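Table S2 (continued). Query chain:
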Amino acid sequence: MGHCGKLCWNRGLSSGIKYQGGTHHLNLTGQTHRLTINSERQETGKRTGKRPEIALTGREERVLGGCMRNWKTAIGLDIGTTTICGILMDVTTGEMVKKITLANDTSIEGKEDWEKMQDAGKIEEKCIRMIEELCANGGDVACIGVTGQMHGIVYVGEDGNAVSPVMTWQDGRGNCPYPGCPEKSYAEVMSQQSGYCLATGFGAVTHYYNGKNHLIPETAVGFCTIPDYIAMHLAGLQKPVLHGSMAASLGLYSMEQGGFDREAMEKLGMDASFFPEVLKEEVCIGTWNGIAKVGPAFGDNQASFLGSVDGRSNVLVNVGTGSQVSILGKAGLELAEKKKPALGIDEQTAAISGERALWAGRKTFDNLECRPFMEGHCLYVGSSLCGGYAYALLKGLFEEVLEMCGKESSPELYGAMNDWGKKSREQGISLTVDTRFRGSRKEPGLRGKIENISPDNLKAGALINGVLEGICQELWGLYQEYEMQAEPRDLGVTEAKDGERYITGSGNGIRNNPLLREIFCEKFERKMQIPFYAEEAAYGSALFSLYTSGYYKSLGELQKMVKQGELS
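Corresponding output:
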């Protein structure tokens, strides 16, 4: 699918990504690797703000700030729907030392077609095995971060163990007709009665359906997401406590209160005691085996943003099966300031949600969702239901044409499509394509369309170019909505010290498609930077655990750990 630049620390660097600035030599497992990075992206210090001198002297010891210390690492887990990824990161340099990816083959077959469930116990076993393998790689593991699939829930009992399967974000029970009102779904009735925009798969909707249909396990006392479940057990807790980024994904979450909306629950006749508690302070929630501090689970969109964006741009465009544009909101809630950095675990008491108004001044948009981020910031997120799926649909069309001609499809088809699209683009030949083939979140009944058809442009290359431009145009339109209302200082696309203006791109659709990158750069009138590591969410969860554990004191310090480059 076109050229894909890849980097691997343990095997050296390919020429796929260009890094400007200083050249650094790092020694891992007896091998010396050359890393050329932007001159701004140097190794950052600890909370003192001092820039340490770094020298590797084998696997276990390094010189940090002039004194010998054990080599410290952080672990990040990303519990996805189809895969589980774990990474081991150097606390000082941000270097990814090791990564592991396992299939999330824990699906449970339900009685109904709309049930989408997974086994929480098997997921936990995979996570523990992954952590143990990462720990065996050497170094002193300082902290563990967790992220992964949001929205879905698992019920827990008094002892904190699962008493139900994980009902994932793909679960469709919320779309079932509401009793006595068959023209509306459970999710629609909840949205109407609560005033919140809710969809099937949201934990609050799943729980509401279960309550109405007597499906809540008798021994259940609460619920949480699967990343929160794993973090709770790693921390040695029996009751889940959630960061706002995860809590908001369940629905019925008030940004103003910084917690779940009890008044909305009462309108729906729901028992508020089932909903998990929400942290007001971003602190670690426990320790794993007395070894590593454990941070609260962090939302996967938020973790991907944290693991991708280095501060030169505050805009992230991600193209996978779907696509998103995420913009860092400057104004947000004011979290209680940490009294002490790197508190001992016995000294930390999680501040739980109360009545304090937090987000009274935030902006509202028609098509952008405001999500809690970290350090008082929010992310404004606009999502497309197609993204890379639109290009896959087009590939399917060309495969059908090949079949009509008695030909077999080729693994090089994506590359050929890009070549034809680029040639058409250079000739100025294109079609106007609306790629909302699955509708939009606000208007699910919308469908895509092709316009501006003439005898001169009804060509394969023009259609390819038009689809890629349509993918970009949908995200550009969402960003424009933000740009029209935001203050100039909050626009998110800032000028870096080198005088350039950047956006950050991630996801396989961006990494693997140079023509799509070119279109994004032209539309946004910015250069595009790509995160050094493709495991953005796992990497971001490790960074967030460093923050909650006190190793780094600000978002700005974490962003200095993120390395980016331009794919050639």
